[in-house]
Amino acid sequence: MKINFLLIALCIHLYAGGYSSTISPINANIKNRMVKGNSWKPNCPVKLKDLRYLQMSYIDFSGNSKTGEMIVHKNVADDVVQIFKTLYVNKYPIRKMNLISHYHGNDYRSIEADNTSAFNCRAVTGNKNKWSKHAYGKAIDINPIENPYISKRGNCSHKKSKPYLTPKRVYHKNATITQRAVLLKKAEAVKAFKKFGWRWGGDWKHIKDYQHFDKK
Q1: Is the pLDDT assigned to residue 170 strictly greater than 80?
Q2: Counting C-beta atoms within 10 Å of the first and last residue's C-beta, which end of the chain has fewer, N or C?
Q3: 77-89 and 188-195 helices cross at what angle (nearest 10)?
Q4: pTM > 0.85: yes or no
Q5: CA dist 210 to 13, 23, 41, 57, 158, Å?
């Protein structure tokens, strides 16, 4: 009986204006997907009990309401469902929202699919000796094709991101749904993350990681 009450306490449901979300512990089924999908291993810097499985509404690129899934650290789970509620209310479009295990933990494949995701037990790009914020479940990448990682030299590894490199990242008054996915400094989506104390990679000086948000 105590276990049942604990599970109920850990599962939160929000519903407002068509938006809904749930926060749940990592159960056996999700753990199996993470292990088989190469996104979590026993040597990861965060334990499964400290992660949460989220299901959240989002508006896709066709303007339809969909339900996506994401895994984050328990300490930021409440932040995330509230932030994505704001994105939903403001009709910020998201291409898709799958667990990184759907792409066998391969960040490149997830980006190529323009997938919005969070937890992935991997090292920092370019530094195999340091865990990424994603490995702690405290970082989220949103619409990575439209919001690419750009190196100091201005290069990007994904051909589909070329129309969205820095010189072309401008506000469109009559934006298409794809253009509205582009994250700019004054975008409501960026403001929503910053309101909860998250950093944005678009503010970084030497490189730009427009898709990336993280929390210390």
Answers
A1: no
A2: N
A3: 160
A4: yes
A5: 30, 26, 28, 22, 14
